[in-house]
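Aggregate trends can hide what the representation actually does to any particular protein. For completeness, the protein is quoted in full, as a sequence line and a line of structure tokens.
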Amino acid sequence: MRKTPMPLSMPLKHSFPPVAAADARVLVLGSLPGDRSLAAQRYYAHPQNQFWQLMGPVVGVDLVAMDYDDRLAALRARGVALWDVVGSARRPGSSDAAIVDIAGNDIAGLVARLPRLCAIAFNGGTALKQGLKLLGPHHEGPAIVALPSSSPLHTIGLAAKQPAWSQLAAFLLDPPGSRA
């Protein structure tokens, strides 16, 4: 099956700056914000995206009930950083299936600035595939965690996704004998 080439007139879509405190322990990386998120200039703004529902139990707070700025503050305060693997790309709509002209974000640079980072979690298959390319074949840094996508386009239900996402909580704990 041949793919129809994407029109060059399709504008580049750009990711947001990272949301990260210097003491972050978990970095959650999506692929590229969807159209609703880009329009709102907010991570995971689509009302059917399950990100906030999935992360709430991980950090022990009802993120869904909070406004956006409080959600970000709650994640930062609990050691969670957010960003996207793709810095810019062309993509019709919000599906990663036809994403092209990908330019990656400097994931390795961000990781180097987060000395307490324990895990890099990839939200979905495209984020994982592109992120592993950016980190390179000899990545020896924080643990890599592959997560089922929080996108409404990923059809498995919330209950089936939650166990994978819940494993992030262990990375937010300080090891015995360490000082926060």
